């Protein structure tokens, strides 16, 4: 499905516009906010309405500075650790999820806490618990240091889960054949890379338990498929997202894997017009934590330099909505 509109550069005089080569802009759909991000932001906003300022948020609610700054302006205070939250103040846990001891400590301290963990991440947490209860050692495919990975690994006892990042990591595993094993994956990985790692795990440990498909979420898969659908037609692809946003980084990789150069940008102001010198067709997408407003900001910036012919290429239409925590709906 495609929709097309043509716009002229806003900032240039009429005679200069005429001399410019038009820029075909292919905008991927779906892009930007997913249901988990929508829900997490709404939880903070509703908590501010219910409890008043300030509401503490442990870690960036979603990995986007624009979103975080907007919530700060409304009265949210972002911290990295629970001990930075004063007694008596409400705290929200970010969409990436937290290790089990964090809500337990918050409860011990008598804090009012709200869990904005994406339900699709929580689902992986429950799977981890079930495997641990069944005595299986878990091989968790993910990126070291990402908060989702820290949160999921923190659902089970230390020593009962091992992080696997690469095919080399799979080759280096040396569990005896009799060890009951299971695998799980981070939700925001590259669909293609993960398929290879899971295939290697299954080849190495034929008895391994795991989900039928990987745990990569619908939003991550859909955004990667949308980039694949346009990458071949583009001379360059821009991904709006933060450098610590896993799903945004993966979108850059997907384009590059298709042979299309790609750049991660946080705002329109980061675009260097020199990047566009040889570009006739530009691709544009946004990671799951980047608001649509930033997409429009990028389009407006492009219009300062070129006649822009926009085409939205839709590969699927998302209708996912997640329920809010009961504390905010009763
Ligand atoms: Fe949930 Fe996927 Fe969105 Fe992460 S990217 S918040 S897992 S829907």
Question: Could you explain how this protein is built, in words?
Answer:
The protein contains 11 helices and 13 strands. Helix 10 links the parallel strand 10 (236-240) and strand 11 (262-265). Helix 5 packs parallel to helix 6 (147-153) and helix 9 packs parallel to helix 10. The protein is α/β, with parallel strands linked by helices. It has 3 domains: 2-33 and 218-314, 4-hydroxy-3-methylbut-2-enyl diphosphate reductase, catalytic domain (Cobalt-precorrin-4 Transmethylase, domain 1); 35-115, Rossmann fold (3-Layer(aba) Sandwich), CATH 3.40.50.11270; 119-215, Cobalt-precorrin-4 Transmethylase, domain 1 (3-Layer(aba) Sandwich). The strands form 3 sheets. It has a 6-stranded mixed sheet with strand order 1-13-2-12-10-11, sandwiched between helices. It is flat. Iron/sulfur cluster binds at residues 34-37, 95, 118, 120-121, 187-188, 217, 219-220, 247, 288.
- Compute the average pLDDT: 94
Q: If you consult CATH, what is the topology of the largest domain?
A: Cobalt-precorrin-4 Transmethylase, domain 1
SS element count, helices: 11
Ends: how far apart? 40 Å
Helix residue percentage: 25-40%
How many strands appear in the DSSP assignment? 13
The class by helix and strand makeup works out as alpha/beta
CATH superfamily of the largest domain: 4-hydroxy-3-methylbut-2-enyl diphosphate reductase, catalytic domain
Give the names of the bound compounds.
iron/sulfur cluster
Task: Give the name of the CATH architecture of the largest domain.
Answer: 3-Layer(aba) Sandwich
Estimate what percentage of residues fall within beta strands: 15-25%
Largest sheet: 6 strands, mixed
Spans of at least 5 consecutive residues with low confidence: none
> Which of globular, elongated, flat, extended, rod-shaped describes the shape?
flat
Major sheet: arrangement of strands: 1-13-2-12-10-11
Cα Rg: 22 Å
SSE order in H/E notation? EHEHEHEEHEHEHEHEHHEHEEHE
What is the total number of structural domains?
A: 3
What is the level 1 CATH name of the largest domain?
A: Alpha Beta
